[in-house]
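Example 3.2
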Amino acid sequence: MSRIGKKPVEFPKGVTITVGADNVVTVKGPKGELKQAIDRDIKLEVKEGTVELVRPTDQIRHRAMHGLYRSLVSNMVKGVTEGYVKQMELVGVGFKAANQGNVLDLALGYSHNIIFEIPKELKVSTSQEKGQNPIITLESVDKQLLGQVCAKLRGLRKPEPYKGKGVKFVGEVLRRKAGKSAGK
């Protein structure tokens, strides 16, 4: 059995989990509602305060999806109860971030500013303190969407290995390389 898949997902009071037609799981909680389509072979058993996922056989395909869907349901439960927050830092001279609602205006060292539209499901805020790098804070109940948006933001200017300039996560440790003068 999958170590992850066989663990039951516990959910607190105030969260409701329903399995609809076509095996679509709906999780409602204080912060919002999320839906996820689950493979028709995987069965969900909703009990008092827990959800268990059961796979029919030990085929490779079923074993692979068992742990995956358990993690997705667990992430949905955590999202509607606590939510997810990611912070990104702009490292570089003249790098700036400003937001008007869900539209980010980024100055990342190119000849033009980048206008990046954030999906309406996410909340975005920017902050700039004197002597500190600009920080973009993204909040959402959907972990997958949040990660996708962060990856796209990071892809606008990936951190380079020599000076570390670019868009990175707060607390991320970058592997740095020695420059040309290191060989002398």
